[in-house]
Amino acid sequence: MMRFDIAAARVVLRRALNGDSVIAIEADAPHWRICTMTVDVKKLFNEELTASLATKGDAARKIGGTYGINITGAGNWKIDLVANPPTIASSEAEVTDAQVVIGVAEADFQTLVADPGAGMKLFFAGKLKVKGNQMLAMKLKDLFALR
Is residue 104 part of a domain? Predict the structure, then answer.
């Protein structure tokens, strides 16, 4: 069991992309970060974003591009925001044939959903892999905002 001085920690309440509240306990030392999982990743891609694309297709096409999202421990999806209507398809194998391919572990994806500003930090830490058009990758947060 790990113990730490609660006086040195701070409790942070954040708003996740899906509207859920996320409670994180943080301390000054990097190994004292505890964050609750807030998003069912499969439901996010297979249901929530799919429904958003059906109702907000014009806004999604303005974002544009094709995305491969490979989340270790959760699944792989190809998102086509050029098609009319835009589509999301799950895949058994990693998606490699998109304009931008993003690879991330599920825990790091949860961090990204809880704090969209963490993307650059994850990228520079080597936890978020981006292949292809990096400008499209930066627009991905706009897609999640459609929910």
Answer: yes
Are 85 and 29 members of one domain?
A: no
Contact between 18 and 2 (Cβ < 8 Å): no
- DSSP 3-state of 40: coil
For residue 114, pLDDT over 90 is answered with no
Query: In this predicted model, what pLDDT tens digit does every residue of 48-62 receive, in sequence order?
Result: 999 999 999 999 999
Omega cis (within 30) before 86? no
Residue 30, domain extent: 6-35
Give 126-138 pLDDT, tens digit per residue.
Answer: 999 999 999 999 8
Q: How far apart are CA 34 and CA 11, in angstroms?
A: 10
Cα separation, 35 vs 7, in Å, equals 18
- Please name the residues in contact with 32: beta carbons below 8 A apart, sequence gap of 6 or more: 4, 9, 25, 26
